Amino acid sequence: MSKAAPDDRYRQILDDRGIFNPAWLCIDGKEGAPLPAPNGVDSYIQRRIRSGFESIDCSHVVTGKVGTSGPEGVRVDMSPPMELARLPERLETLGGDALITAPDLSAAVVISSLGYMLAAGSKDFMRATVIGVDWARERFEYYASYHREHPVELLALSRQYAPRKRSWRTVSEVAPGSAASEQLQLMEDLLRGRIDGSHFARQWFRVRSQGLKEGEMLRIAFEHLLNQVFYELDDRYAIDPSTREEGDMTEEELKEFVQHIHTEIHKL
Predict the structure, then answer these.
(1) Whole-number Cα distances in Å, 85 to 52, 60, 66, 118, 151
(2) SS3 14
(3) Predicted confidence (pLDDT) per residue in 26-42, tens digit
(4) ∠132-76-22 over CA atoms, to 5°?
(5) Are 235 and 249 in contact (CB under 8 A)?
(6) 15 with 99: CB under 8 angstroms?
(7) Those residues with Cβ within 8 angstroms of residue 6's Cβ, 6 or more apart along the chain or in another chain
(8) Which secondary-structure segment (H or E) carries 195?
C-alpha cells in the first residue's frame, strides 16, 4: 500500500514566518487578530478556540505542530481531522507552537510559544473567538509594548494587526449617534428631570445591548464606569415600582448614583 501524501495545505494558511498568509486572509474577507497567551494554552485560550469553531458549526478540526524547515520556512505536520471535543488533549501533545484549522480552511488559529494566539476567520468566528477584532488588536498592542520577553516579535505582530479604529477615552471622542453617546444623553436626561428612572433603565438596557452588538470600543476606565450603571440597575433597581422590595434602589438613590458616574466620566 502506498504511503499517503503529507497534508501540505497549511502552506495556503501560513507564510514563511508562521503567521497568516495575506492571500489566504483575502479569501472570503477573513478578519484576523492576536490575543495574549502568556501562560500558553490555558483554560481561557481553550474556551476561546472552542467557541470560535462551534460558532461556525465546525465539529472537527485539523491540527499540527508548527516547526521550522530550513529555507522552506515553517513546516506543519498535519494530522487527520479530529473531534473538536478532543482538542484539549491534542494541544498538550503539540507543545507550544501549533496550528488548528477547520477542515475546509475557512478559519484557523495559531498558537505561539512567544506568548500569543492568532485567530482568523469569518465575522461570526472572530466574534466568538476574540469578542471584537479591533478590541483584541488594541489590547494586544498594549500587551506587546509591556511584555518583557520577545518584545521585537510581539511588537512586529501588533503592527501587522494594528486596530483599524481605536477605543474612545473621553466624552469628547465619543461619536455622535453611537450607543455610548445615547448612554451619556440618558444620564443627562435623568439628572435634568426629563425622564424618570423606569424609562432610564429600560433605555439603558436597550442601548447597552446595541453597543455590544455593534462592537463599540471604550477605554477600560470609561467602559468600567458605564458598566457600573448597568450592574446597579440589574442588581438593585426595580423598573416596575410595584415590585420594588426593601433594599432596592429608590429614584433618589438612582439619581445620586448616576450623578456620581456622570461626574467621574467627565473627569477622564
Answers:
(1) 13, 8, 21, 20, 34
(2) strand
(3) 999 999 999 999 998 99
(4) 45
(5) no
(6) no
(7) 77, 78
(8) none
